[in-house]
Amino acid sequence: MKQTIFLFRHNRRKFLKDVSLAFGATAMGLPMASFASSCQSSGSDKENTQVEQTGQDNGQNRKLGIALVGLGNYATNQLAPALQETEHCYLAGIVTGTPSKAETWKRKYKIPEKNIYNYETYDQIADNPDIDIIYIVLPNGMHAEYTVRGARAKKHIISEKPMATSVADCQRMIEACKENKVKLSIGYRLHFEPHHQRVMELGQQQVYGPVQRIEAEDSFVIGGSPDRWRLDKELAGGGPLMDLGIYCVQGAIYTMGKTPVAVTAKFGEVTRPDFFDEVEQSINWQMEFADGAMANCTTSYNKNQNLLYGKAEKGWWRLQPSFGYSGIQGETSEGPMNLPNVNQQARQMDDFALCILDDREIPVPGEMGLRDVRILESIYEAARTGNRVEIKV
Length: 393
Ligand code: NAD
Description:
By secondary structure, this protein is of the alpha/beta class. It has helices spanning 2-23, 44-54, 73-82, 99-109, 143-152, 167-179, 194-204, 233-236, 240-256, 344-358, 366-385; strands spanning 56-57, 62-69, 89-95, 116-117, 133-136, 156-159, 184-186, 211-219, 262-267, 282-288, 294-300, 305-312, 315-319, 330-332, 335-336, 389-390. The protein folds into 2 domains: 3-189, NAD(P)-binding Rossmann-like Domain (Rossmann fold, 3-Layer(aba) Sandwich), CATH 3.40.50; 194-342 and 366-390, Dihydrodipicolinate Reductase, domain 2 (2-Layer Sandwich), CATH 3.30.360.10. Strands 15-14-13-12-8-11-10-9-16 form a 9-stranded mixed sheet. α5 links the parallel β5 (133-136) and β6 (156-159). Mean pLDDT is 88; it is low at 1-54. Bound molecules: nicotinamide-adenine-dinucleotide. Nicotinamide-adenine-dinucleotide is lined by residues 70-75, 97, 137-140, 160-161, 187, 189, 229, 235, 243. Residues 65-188 form the Gfo/Idh/MocA-like oxidoreductase N-terminal domain. This is Gfo/Idh/MocA family oxidoreductase. Residues 196-305 form the GFO/IDH/MocA-like oxidoreductase domain.
């Protein structure tokens, strides 16, 4: 046992060292990482003991078991493949309402029958020691219910972005995790991506002096059928702002290392009324920071664009494309960034597993998700009323 613990510790340290060597002083050490988690565990010894009893042992290390809830596009094409590369967690279980998907996943990922649930049997996950973490990858309007139920099952939770479709739901999720002494994180994968970590450093450490202006856009042309959940107000919470604009909000905030104090906003024209009868087709907004810096942001479901740009007193930087799973390119006023593209989701999930194993602060906690949903609500209010809306976070 002693040897196992030693190897576990050794591997963990090696991982952290590799990360910091590869990317310099990054997100973990910057102000954005200082979000205090409200979901403190009851103690690291207890949690490590639990992990040693329940996690997968590959002979060298303990891995935490993750169950993915909702086997749609993101779970299928990004998270499950990423879980084949993680060092500190693995795909232990699934929750799906589609029996044929359960069969396919069971065979493909060798998931034992006892770790496969549907939405009716979901709560029984409480009795399954193989599952340490529940990862909610359902439509936005379902994140709150499945997080609360998952927390009651005493499992740590990752909820996809946006955390929920209302501030009240975000608060419910945080509360449930606190009460049940489990940790809560949001699927903010870009905090673990080297180009974005560089932007945090450039902006927050004022490498080129104070930031004056940020430009951010995340847009794509939505296809498929008009009755998809992303266009349904109840399930999505809103249109591209909830889905994509959240990356612009995040990008501006982690460039600055602080939250904006006020927003103004304007909905764009609706040119496809068959698609956009419940949610916006596009929206432009401005975020004002206390020191006078401004972020001009756009998101649309009717064009393709992907940009995070920052201008400081003595230099600038640009990520373009900026928010994708791979292919991010960065340059500064001094030249190309020359940073690697990595498996963002693998890093994100490994970091959460280490937060649990080490009982340390989560860099992307529920409180950050709540803050962002509050800002999204303020942007909608500004667009609806035409007023400048102050943000109180
Ligand atoms: P998707 O439509 O591909 O998958 C949704 C899944 O939920 C499907 O398996 C579907 O069967 C299931 N589901 C259960 N109940 C449903 C209902 N009532 N209506 C519709 N579907 C229902 O969506 P997705 O693209 O995988 O997105 C899922 C979540 O992941 C969203 O919250 C989204 O914002 C988030 N996401 C995050 C990223 C990221 O980069 N972090 C990328 C894509 C999606």
